[in-house]
Amino acid sequence: MKTNVAPELEKQRRRWTLPSLGEFGAIWFALGILVLLSAWLAPETLRPGALAAMAPFASFLALVSVGQMLVIRQRGLDMSAGTMMTLAGLVLAGLAGRLDSIWIPLVLTLCVAALVGVINGLLVSKVHISPIVATLAVDALLLGGVRAISGGTAVTMPKGFQQLTHTDVLGLPSSLVVSLASIAAVAVAVNFTLHGRNFIAVGASPRAAAGSGLRVVFYQVGGYVLASICFGLAGMMLAGFVGSASQTAGADYLLPGIVAVIVGGTQFSGGKGSIVATALAAIFMAQLQQLVLSLGASPALQLLIQAAAIVIAVGLRSIPRLYRRLGASVRLPCA
Fold first, then answer.
1. How far is residue 40's CA from residue 104's CA, in Å, rounded to a whole number?
2. C-alpha dihedral over 203, 209, 214, 217, to 10 degrees?
3. Which of helix, strand or coil describes residue 169?
4. Which residue of 196, 261, 278, 288 has the fewest C-beta atoms within 10 A of its own C-beta?
């Protein structure tokens, strides 16, 4: 009597799959490793006082990184981010001094940021200039405006705005709360609205999106507008937190903002990206800076350490893919 042994053998074997980490899970590994290294090499950087001091600047970087990610998802790049931050702080300080108000200058400054975004977006999408060239040209114009407004000296921020950026909301710095709220709003708009889905589709394939009847130019320009607003908001909060707006305030946020987008898993090919992963990557960059500074490394060594950490973090992107391959190939027999 013959029996079909294949089903019996199949019942005795169990497919063992490793848990999925998600497409952007590598940043969790990178951040975890960095925390362990910080606890071992410089535990003082993880104390509540040190984290509280780092939180506002990390929130500024996270906001800049999320704005840059929106542009990169549209296959672009905004090289005017740092100067836009600087200009926003200077414009807010100048308008607040003349209008004797805080909220009206704040709204007007955001309008200026939106206008800069429109110019960047139109140069890229309608004039078809390379994103790097177009935004560098706009950056040069903004830099001229920064020098004209500042006159080469720092401008003191209004006391009211300084107090606003230093107050606590539910035990958290107001700058951190504003950044988190802004990032959450962007995440909801991109991931849970019709315009957000269209925005993702345009970034993934502009030609296919145009064939489907989507307004490609509208969403491409919109990406630059939202990014510029993020830069402007970060620049205003930075100037208020520091107490003054200088002509070099945003220079240190351009490259770290781009690196955070890359470390967070967003690709320059467009379409795919994670706002949460980008924000976590900004925290990674801020904590890495804290660790390097606490170790007393020279400027040259600081750059080398940061470069090595960035390479490692980017290399960890392959872990989810390796997990899936390993999980698909490994089979464990039942006991």
1. 48
2. 50
3. strand
4. 196
Helices (H), 126-173: 131-150, 159-166
Phi then psi for residue 15, to 5 deg, are -75, 125
CB atoms within 10 A of CB 41: 11
What global pTM score does this model have?
0.85
For tokens 């390379």, name the residue: 130
Reported as a single tens digit per residue, the pLDDT across 7-40 is 443 444 443 333 444 556 678 888 888 899 899 9
Closest-CA residue to 234 (of 51, 102, 58, 101): 58
Q: Which of 314, 218, 210, 318 is nearest to 268 (CA)?
A: 314
Rounded distance, CA 219 to CA 71, Å?
A: 10
Maximum separation of any 2 CA atoms in the chain, in Å: 99
